[in-house]
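Researcher: I've been going back and forth with a colleague about how Histidinol dehydrogenase homolog might be arranged in three dimensions. Neither of us has a model we trust, so I'd like an independent prediction. The organism is Rubellimicrobium rubrum, in case that matters for your notes. Sequence below.
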Amino acid sequence: MNDFPGISWIKAPSPEAAADTAEVQRLVAEVLARVKAEGDAAVADYARRFDRSDLDRFEVTPEERQAAVDALDLQTRADTEFAIANVRRFAEAQLATMQPLEIEILPGAHLGHRVIPVERVGCYVPGGRFPLLSAPIMTIVPAKVAGVDEVIACLPPNAHQAMVAGCHLSGADRIFRIGGAQAIAALAFGTETVPAVDKIVGPGNAFVNEAKRQVFGPVGIDQLAGPSEIYILADSTGEAEMIATDLLAQAEHDVRTRVGLITTSADLGRAVLADVEKQLATLSTASVAGPSWASKGEIAVASDEEAMIAYSDHIAAEHLQVHTADPHAFGQRLRNYGSLFIGELASVVYSDKCIGTNHTLPTMAAGRYTGGLWVGSYVKVATHQWLDDRGVRAVAPPAARQSASEGLEGHRRAAQLRLDRMQA
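Model: Here is an independent structure prediction for Histidinol dehydrogenase homolog. You can compare it with whatever you and your colleague have in mind.
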């Protein structure tokens, strides 16, 4: 473990081994090329090879969508609609903060921007170990709130029926049972049945991630997702059982989940370590959470609050909980994170499921430069300008002079032409 000023460790994570991704890159490149060239035939072939699925068609019919909704038990449907309503309300409030702009920057020189929805978006809904019913909500609902014309959902052929219901209730315009890299290829290039999209969002496995990386450019993506992360910042007021419980709640996602506590209290750190081991003995998902904690779990002791903040900002955790005496004031001092959970009553689990903030968040320290998926991810802020004679008189001379000094004669002429005609 590299030294970090003011930080010592009660439990350090195992060193991160460099991943050999060459085979994943090769296989994904093959999938993309074949789907681009062969369309549905290649998608069907990969569905048989990778998903053991032999569907005669990929799109979920309206009747099948409704049947999936009808198959939900009443409480699951009510909980799903509760989550959808909260995500929608928060997305609507966020969108309301994004306003068109028109300003006269100089007399006669008008600048502005419009907030324009992306025309067509593809939402990848992962299958995974458990049916994550909140996954389609987080990608589809903000897209509909943003005003996207058409939202295409793709999910693996063997995904739970409840996931189809979630896509339908969230407002997906079309749903396809296509998973993996072939789904990303179909969305990026289009096939006989799947329309090409302008942007692809949603997390997935290493093959999905690599496919998104390779198609990026002509097609937009939200981000490249890594394993889930949670860090908790706590002083001596932190409560060991609650911290241990929240750490394990994320650790059960995946054996590669990164979980950690940064605290100014070594006593609290030791208590959390003991409580994690105690809870693992009775946790039904210990077969996943245990290896995650053993290899990725971290308990760091900071010499003071400044060291705790500096180390937290260095990690830039996907989920960051604050359990301190004054969590609101402390939270204002933090800079790098995916989403912040202020006070011990705020749990990542609420965000994961239903409270309204999005759970598709930056990992692998990307929180240093970006936030997570939100309604703004589905719109473009596109600028414009228009001028009258006064504006041309103000900007043409400096634009022409600057162009001339740069040796760009075509630019100089374009800047000067309008002024010359006005003066003539």
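Researcher: What would you highlight for our discussion?
Model: I'd start with this: The first strand starts at residue 7 and ends at 11. After that, consider the following. Residues 47 and 53 are 5 Å apart (CA to CA).
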